[in-house]
Amino acid sequence: MAGVTRTPTSLVQGGKTRAGIGESTLRPDGTLKVTGEFAYSSDMWHEDMLWGFTLRSTTAHAEIRSIDTAEALATPGVYAVLTYDDLPTDVKNYGLEIQDTPVLAHGKVRHHGEPVALVAADHPETARRAAAKIKIEYCELPVVTDEASATAEGAPLVHENRTDHHAGHVPHPNIVHRQPIIRGNADEAAKKADVIVSGEYVFGMQDQAFLGPESGLAVPGEDGGVDLYVATQWLHSDLRQIAPVLGLPEEKVRMTLSGVGGAFGGREDLSMQIHACLLALRTGKPVKIVYNRFESFFGHVHRHPARLWYEHGATKDGKLTHMKCRIVLDGGAYASASPAVVGNASSLSVGPYVVDDVDIEAIALYSNNPPCGAMRGFGAVQACFAYEAQMDKLAAKLGLDPVEFRQRNAMEQGTLLPTGQQVDSPAPVAELLRRVKAMPLPPEQQWLSAGEGADVRALPGGLSNTTHGEGVVRGVGYAVGIKNVGFSEGFDDYSTARVRMEVIGGEPVATVHTAMAEVGQGGITVHAQIARTELGVQQVSIQPADTQVGSAGSTSASRQTYVTGGAVKHTCEAVREKVLATGRAKFGTYHPAWATAELLLEGGKVTTDGGEVLADIADVLEDEAIDLELEWRHRPTEAFDLRTGQGNGHVQYSFAAHRAVVEVDTELGLVKVIELACAQDVGKALNPLSVVGQIQGGTTQGLGVAVMEEIIVDPKTAKVRNPSFTDYLIPTILDTPTIPVDVLELADEHAPYGLRGIGEAPTLSSTPAVLAAIRNATGLELNKTPVRPEHLTGT
Amino acid sequence: MRVTFTVNGRRQEADDVWEGESLLYVLRERMGLPGSKNACEQGECGSCTVRLDGVPVCSCLVAAGQVEGREVVTVEGLADFAKQRAEGGGCASGVCGTSVAEAQQWQARPAGSQAGEQAELSPIQQAFIDAGAVQCGFCTPGLLVAADELLERNGSPSDADIREALSGNLCRCTGYEKILDAVRLAAARGDSHTAGQGA
Amino acid sequence: MDFLRPASWEEALAAKAEHPTAVPIAGGTDVMVEINFDHRRPEYLLDLNRIGELNEWEVGERTVRLGASVPYTQIMENLRAELPGLALASHTVASPQIRNRGGVGGNLGTASPAGDAHPALLAAGCEVEVESVRGRRMIPIDDFYTGVKRNAMAPDELIRSVHLPKADGPQQFSKVGTRNAMVIAVCAFGIALHPETRTVRTGIGSAAPTPVRAKEAEAFLTAALEEGGFWDSGSPIPPSVAKQFAQLAAGACNPIDDVRGSAAYRRHAVGIMARRTLGWTWESYRGNAHGSKGGAQCA
């Protein structure tokens, strides 16, 4: 440890910052981040460290006939070259749910860019040149790239001899998981429909495109263990997968979260963690691995591309009669989070609507495409794109306003989901739609506002100067979505918080220690706010997240404020009780209120709920420190029945609605999104400033996949064609519109402070809203996202 | 090869530089200045933006050898740079910045040092914090350098001007709204500041 | 790898003569990407940043001599009047940071069909000044591009400057990308009206193996303008003429399908851009500012 010159440190917030929950509070890491001092995983640095490099497959599906590392190993400056044969134990695979992913390829590679060998050297260039000298003999195998090729007779199996817990119930070994949901009788109900619409929808492969590349530093310890500094979403999940491969007990793999440059689901799986540890343990030296952007596209899973078939019926007074759908998600070569994504896609496939009779099926494929897993919205995104297109089609066919039609069918508190689960907290779907619709529309032809001819920056094409108004047509579209919050389907979803309260310099100070991955969302700000609110302190110290404290679960599924926030609250409450008990013991005889009144900690003092001060916390605690580590879990959920899909699978829901205003250059097929208004119910905004920031950021990721973002995989070779920021485009500030946000706070009585997880819902509805607006402008059907100029111009 | 140049006002030297190394790599890995970020290394994200002889550039696309004898300002020197600009002077050589030795011993502030409240910040840095423009923060250093240069050229930019000036800096977290807010805020504070001086 | 740092143009020429495989690096916006991503490991890098005259331009009576390394930002800000087409094209290059580093010499040296300067250079009609220790020569832009990422230069030559005629009429540039900033061209189109010679020149980017002119379209339009007396009358161009011009421009494309766009779309888009940019330049020629001001405003 002594030699590590750049590692995460604790963050102390106090002084003028007093904000408790409900107040916009500035980030405790803000100053470090604006001065460049914040230590991200790629900034880790150690004297005498080596650089690790990963050699990846250049082909998607092949037998490995031989690997010759001799020449690479003989390169001056190279300290180690590792292949599958060098793995130290019998545990050679890892995986979130199914351990099907080889640490290094063995016998064959199943997708383009799969890790095959590792090099450690004294300079990244030395490592690259040595890796180029590794000779691998591949024998190409046929690829499966979609449902037809994956399930064709005689199709090559991506994984032979499956023994995982889904293997027994799937219809084909190239299907990871299948989840049907049957409720009511969709065929019977269809007879009541006055109109029926159906459609096939295609959702492209989206990348999380977090800016901080996969990176970290592994430092071998004197005890034979390893210290790993890394950017991840869930330290303990990593640990559980890393330690067995290294052959070390978990306590000898000491993980610390370094600065995380965004995540969005892409850091839920391992990337360089095991590789860096293996190289560090082999060489006895600290090893740093940093992917470049090209490698990053191969280094993490992507959002599942999907094909979705939907049929809806409605009566002529605008009530949905039934829904049938089939959702095929492409999971790629390894399972990652595919089973849970299937569960989400199927259980949320009906959207935030009341439909009693449904026939639903969702599957995820194994294929030779890049592995897909978690990304913001997690299965609900793909479904929302499709069902919202269906809603517009139905409204059009019935001659109803699309918002009015949605409102007539909107779910509310008490509605039964297709899984039979009752929605037991507010579900203000109709109200959110009303709110976005009520917002004023942006003025027309804003490119003329400067008064001196057209400002191309306000037009489709932007700086490229493609139109001065010619061919430009405006369109408006709406969408709304439903996302589950927290881990579902019976998962034991808990978190742990350690809270210490003591007096330093005469002032009570709280220290909060969790393993929560702060990936930018602002969880640490909220933890400090909770501690202030519950413990009446001003100064809070946030310890770096590490594995010296219990698991916090993943920073995903919009769950951290709910679950780790809940754990911090719970632990603070227990600490408070201890403080009060100490106070009663010391001072209870001096004032009857100690025994009778509801007591609070506020402003550094013990007070009655009426505000009467009983003692200074400093006097209560004196030299004593109260230090507790407690777990907290949300209400349990159940697995979905494998045949009927019935079960109380979810714990909470999050709803957002969008109105998109676009301007489309109909001749060139270029789109400018002018405004993306959002209304979202957040239950309780613990930090309003960051709530709005989350909604705007999520909205923009949805915009990206609507009009530009797609990883393009060659269907013949399963190779990725655009692994760079030159050809995988994410929105710039000139592509992103104003995003007015209307925050609704209807408390969920089951959740801490009534809060609702918020991070994902805005990513669901923004994409279909933009698509609806483009359809509105062009009159085209547009069943695929992202929309490309070719789709808009018929070329 | 050896490369010598001025970073944040201080002469810096790096030895054994591989000829293919970028300015970004030398700053981050050899000079202890990791504030400039390595998000794409192809000039498509702006996270590594620095001032090279005053001009904002992607340091990932400048070969280390090209910087010989030139002046670089990184996010680590932005507060000093802005302060000296406000005081009407340039960055006097050797007065601001950190030495190589200091820089390589660089460490994030230890516990108890009130991180987040003591450092002296440039107006644009303070505005980014105040407006909530920082989430994961990986794009932040590059955006700060670019936005600071915009406000240096144009003290009251229109929204379209801000968008154009920052169109080379990708952010994946914020949706850019709060970044716009931050630049507007810094511009407004700059206006009131000069107004207060009667300028 | 060796890093050569010539202090003068003469030293640079000598170095290039001694090491013809040396890769010149100025703005670095192409070369460094290739090095960072391990696509290229040149034996020698030849740094041109220390050669001041490459960053200078001279405005003469009839031509502009534009140093190979003059950054696009400088072209946008200082040469809008003389080189309006190139100034517009410069504004579409990548990002402000890249425009602060990259120059026309890099576009020409790389000779990618997607280089943003090419259509404007073709439309303006210019000569590339290249030099080696053997001597100096001027390569007409029409002869410069010889294949995909290949040009007419000898291995020992370096680009000194580009000689562009000062605009004698309106010029426009338009580029399609699937993002509103920082985007590589799916395809691009440049047009220059030359009232002095009563001719029209064009340039097409990213829609053929090399940047090309739409020569048939130019010939057709030049003839139509002449025959209709449009140069004198300043009458609006009939839609049928604009349409034919657009069709011929599209027909000059020989594009491919790639991740950035389909061949069919590229042909289609070049046609649209040809019609629109013709409209803007002609309106400008007629003295009606309505058509071209928008582009010019942001140049």
TrEMBL record, chain A:
Cross-referenced SMART domains: Ald_Xan_dh_C
InterPro entries with a match to the protein in the record: Ald_Oxase/Xan_DH_a/b, Ald_Oxase/Xan_DH_a/b_sf, Ald_Oxase/xanthine_DH-like, AldOxase/xan_DH_MoCoBD1, AldOxase/xan_DH_MoCoBD2, AldOxase/xan_DH_Mopterin-bd_sf
GO MF assignments: iron ion binding; oxidoreductase activity
Sequence ranges assigned to domain Aldehyde oxidase/xanthine dehydrogenase a/b hammerhead in this UniProt record: 35-142
Bias (Polar residues): 1-12
Gene3D superfamilies per record: Aldehyde oxidase/xanthine dehydrogenase, a/b hammerhead (3.90.1170.50), Aldehyde oxidase/xanthine dehydrogenase, molybdopterin binding domain (3.30.365.10)
Pfam families on file: Ald_Xan_dh_C, MoCoBD_1, MoCoBD_2
Region annotation Disordered: where it falls in the sequence: 1-24
SUPFAM superfamilies: CO dehydrogenase molybdoprotein N-domain-like, Molybdenum cofactor-binding domain
Name of the molecule in the record: Xanthine dehydrogenase subunit D
Automatic annotation (TrEMBL), chain B:
InterPro entries referenced in this protein's UniProt entry, alphabetically: 2Fe-2S-bd (IPR002888), 2Fe-2S-bd_dom_sf (IPR036884), 2Fe-2S_ferredoxin-like_sf (IPR036010), 2Fe-2S_ferredoxin-type (IPR001041), 2Fe2S_fd_BS (IPR006058), Beta-grasp_dom_sf (IPR012675), Diverse_Oxidoreductases (IPR051452)
Source species of the chain: Streptomyces sioyaensis
Classification via PANTHER family: OXIDOREDUCTASE WITH IRON-SULFUR SUBUNIT, XANTHINE DEHYDROGENASE IRON-SULFUR-BINDING SUBUNIT XDHC-RELATED
One Gene Ontology molecular-function label: 2 iron, 2 sulfur cluster binding
The entry's keywords: 2Fe-2S, Iron, Iron-sulfur, Metal-binding, Oxidoreductase
Iron keyword on record: yes
Record Pfam families: Fer2 (PF00111), Fer2_2 (PF01799)
Protein name: (2Fe-2S)-binding protein
Domain 2Fe-2S ferredoxin-type: 1-78
UniProtKB/TrEMBL annotation, chain C:
Sorted UniProt keywords: FAD, Flavoprotein, Oxidoreductase
Record-linked InterPro entries: CO_DH_flav_C, CO_DH_flav_C_dom_sf, Diverse_Substr_Oxidored, FAD-bd_PCMH, FAD-bd_PCMH-like_sf, FAD-bd_PCMH_sub1, FAD-bd_PCMH_sub2, Mopterin_DH_FAD-bd
MF annotations from Gene Ontology: FAD binding; oxidoreductase activity
Protein's UniProt name: Xanthine dehydrogenase family protein subunit M
Organism for this UniProt entry: Streptomyces sioyaensis
Lineage: Bacteria, Bacillati, Actinomycetota, Actinomycetes, Kitasatosporales
Xref: SUPFAM superfamilies: CO dehydrogenase flavoprotein C-terminal domain-like, FAD-binding/transporter-associated domain-like
Cross-referenced Gene3D superfamilies: 3.30.465.10, CO dehydrogenase flavoprotein, C-terminal domain (3.30.390.50), Uridine Diphospho-n-acetylenolpyruvylglucosamine Reductase, domain 2 (3.30.43.10)
Keyword Oxidoreductase: yes
Residue ranges constituting the FAD-binding PCMH-type domain according to the UniProt record: 1-169
Transmembrane segments: none
Keyword Oxidoreductase: yes
